[in-house]
Amino acid sequence: MARPFDALSPQRRRLVVGLLVGVGALVLALVATTVVRGLTRGGPVPQDQPGPVLLVPGYGGRTASLDPLAAVLRAEGRDVTVVSLLGDGTGDLDAQAAHLADVADDVLRTSGAPSVDVVGYSAGGVVVRLWVRDHGGGEQARRVLTLGSPQHGTSVAALGAQVAGGCPTACEQLLPDSALLRRLNAGDETPAGPEWATVRSGADQVVTPTGSAALAGALNVLVQDVCPTATTSHYALPADPVVAATVRSTLGAGPPAAPATGCG
Fold first, then answer.
1. What's the CA gap between 18 and 107, in Å, rounded?
2. Predicted local confidence at residue 36, as pLDDT
3. How many CA atoms lie within 13 A of 92 on its CB side?
4. Residue 36 gets which letter from DSSP?
5. Domain AB hydrolase-1: where (predicted)?
6. Cis before 150 (ω within 30)
7. How far apart are alpha carbons 88 and 92 in whole angstroms?
């Protein structure tokens, strides 16, 4: 009996075989992703087992801004991944959250850890919240710490959009009362799953008002409550001693706590 391939030329046989191999590889990748997400879901992760740390940069995606935090965490013996955002880091924040989900899957698969801790700086903190709420992060994150994140928007984005007659997608999404933020902040701002903490500075002139960076239900740390003389700007947050102390006091094995000191 003739087989289907018998009527094909050798060149076409190779083409068909190549296509089948490609399809098979794609199916295996999808199955692996599904298995990883399935294994990391189903209940709260262990809070006393710190795992790898993901650092998510802010608007524009400049990963080097997180080098000081990466150094602090690596000195504590933590495995750190600085997440590279899609494109130039000014695109749709929800797409960035879906990308973060892929990165978390990869880190959990390669490390074998039961969870990740995630630090989101500036707009990266909004990306982390979207990941937790809409992209499976609630079953993978043990701790979430956001730094100077415009969780309720910033008037600076509104001013920039007004002056320029519009701004990139992520900028539009960070306008106070944007559709994305209304949806994200409806109901519980810190949904069950991870333990939540935020840090903000009273001297931040990018996220205004600075209270926008606080979340209901989180441990909210104001830099000046820990170090009254601090004049930490938005861009200085990743290298600030209070932030470093908060990273240590919130991402350890014990319950998250505000640092007792941190002026340097």
1. 30
2. 44
3. 6
4. H
5. 52-154
6. no
7. 11
